[in-house]
Amino acid sequence: MPKTDYIYTITAAVPANLIEAANHLACLMGESAADIRTFRQARYQDASGTQYAVCHSVVTDTFIYPLSKRVLPEKAVFESDNTLPCYDRGLAQQALDSLNTEGGMRTAVNVDPHQQFKDWGLVPIQIEEDLL
Question: Where are the domains of the chain?
Answer without folding.
Answer: 8-124
